[in-house]
Amino acid sequence: MPDKAGFPHYMLKEIVEQPKALADTISPRVSLGTGEVRLADEVRIGAEELRALRRINIVASGTSRHAGMTGQYMFQELVHLPVEVDYASEFEYRNPMIGRGEITIVITQSGETADTTAAQREAKKKGSRTIAVSNVQNSTIAREADGVLYTHAGPEISIASTKAFTAQMAVLFLFAAYLSQVREELSKDDLGRWIAELLALPEKAETVLRSSSLSACQQLADEFHKFEDFLFLGRAIHYPIAMDGALKLKEVSYIHAEGYPTGETKHGPNALIDEHLPVVIIATCDRNDPGSVLRYEKTIANIRGFRQQSARVIAIATEGDIEIERLANRTIFIPEAPELLSPILEIIPLQLFAYYVAVRKGLDVDRPKNLVKSVTLE
Ligand code: BG6
C-alpha cells in the first residue's frame, strides 16, 4: 500500500494526483505531430470490425457508471453511433437486446466488481465484443475482455473514487477519438485539435488544484457542512458530474445529496428548493459551442429562479464569468475547456468540497462506514 506522501488522507492525495494521472493516461496514446490516437494494440479489435460497428453499450457501477454517462455524449458526438448506458447490477435482469456487431464497454476502477464481471459475461454470451476500462493491471474483468484500456491513475486507496474517475473519462474520450479516426468520422484537422485539447487537460487540472481553489472549497465546507440535504444539478454531459458530486458527498460525509438534470427540477424537485436546500449547479460554458451556449442561458434562468426562492446557490463556472459570479451565492471557477472535456475539470472542486465537509465533520474520510473499495459479491 503506497503511503500518504505527507497528505492527511489518501482522498486528498489522490485528488491532487489527477494532473499526473491524466498526463500518464493521455500522453503515451496520442501524437500531436501525426494527429493520431494510437490504441490498436490495446483495443485488439480490427479496423474492419470497428467500421462495421452498429452500437455501443456501456455498463458499470458507482462512479464508474457516471464516467460511462459522460462517455455516451463523447461517442455519440464523435462516432455518431447509438450508445446505451446501464447499471451493471441491473444489466442481466433487463435481458439487454444486444449482440454481434456491437461493443460493450465495461468500466471499473478495481476490475473485480461482481456486478460488472457478470455484466461482461452476459454481454459476451449474447455475442457482443467487450472492452474493459480498468485501473488495475490483469484484473478479472481485464483478463476476460476482448480489449483493455487501462487508466494509468496509479493505485487508488480511498474508497471514494476520484483520480480513477477523471482518468476513465479521458480514456473514454481517447477511445471515441480512436473510433472516429478508424471510421473516418473526423477530419485530420479536427482530430489534431482534439488531441491538443486532451494534452492541455493536465495543466488545466493543475490550475483547478491551485491553492486558491483548495481554500475556496475549504471555506465552502466551513459554511455549508451543517446542511442536511443538497441538490446537485447539471445539463447534458454535465448531469453525470452533478451525479458524482452528489455521490462523493454521500459517500464521505453521510449527508443526503441528489444529482438531477437541471431541466427536470421544474417537474418536481423545485418544490423542495428554498433556503434549507443548497443547490450546487454546473454552469460552465464553451463559447465555441452553440449547444453549450444555449444550455448555459437556460442555466442562468434556472439560477435566477432558485435565488428568487431564497435558495443558496453554489456554481461551478468558467473562468472570468462575472454573470454567474453576480447571480450565485458562491462561485468556483475552472479554466475554459471544450464541452466534451470540461466535465473532467468540473468534478475536481466537487471532490474537494465533499472531502473538506467530511474533514470538517471529523469523519474517517478514506474508510466511510458501510462501503468497500470493490464489491466482489453480487
Ligand atoms: C464501490 C466503490 O464499492 O464500487 C465506488 O466504493 C466505486 O467508489 C464502485 O465507484 C464501483 O467500483 P469499480 O471498481 O467497479 O469502479
Radius of gyration: 20 Å
User: What share of residues is helical?
Assistant: 40-55%
User: Which small-molecule ligands are present, each listed once?
Assistant: 6-O-phosphono-beta-D-glucopyranose
Number of helices: 15
Order of helices and strands: HHEEHHEHEHEHEHEHHHEHEEHEHEH
* Morphology: globular
Structural class: alpha/beta
pLDDT below 50 for ≥5 consecutive residues: which ranges? none
Give average pLDDT, whole number: 97
**C-alpha end-to-end distance:** 26 Å
Number of E-state strands: 12
Main sheet specs: 5 strands, parallel
Strand order of the largest sheet: 4-3-5-6-7
| Strand-residue proportion | 15-25%
Q: What would your notes on this structure say?
A:
The chain is α/β, with parallel strands linked by helices. It is 47% helix and 16% strand. It contains 15 helices and twelve strands. It has helices at 10-16, 18-26, 40-43, 47-51, 62-79, 88-91, 114-125, 140-144, 163-182, 188-208, 211-224, 239-253, 290-308, 322-327, 342-360; strands spanning 30-31, 36-37, 55-60, 83-87, 102-108, 129-134, 147-150, 229-234, 256-261, 279-283, 313-318, 330-334. A five-stranded parallel sheet has the order 4-3-5-6-7, with helices on both faces. Helix 2 packs antiparallel against helix 10 (188-208), helix 5 (62-79) runs antiparallel to helix 12 and helix 12 (239-253) packs parallel to helix 15. The radius of gyration is 20 Å and the shape is globular. The mean pLDDT is 97. The structure holds 6-O-phosphono-beta-D-glucopyranose (BG6). 6-O-phosphono-beta-D-glucopyranose binds at residues 61-64, 108-110, 113, 116, 159-161, 371-375.
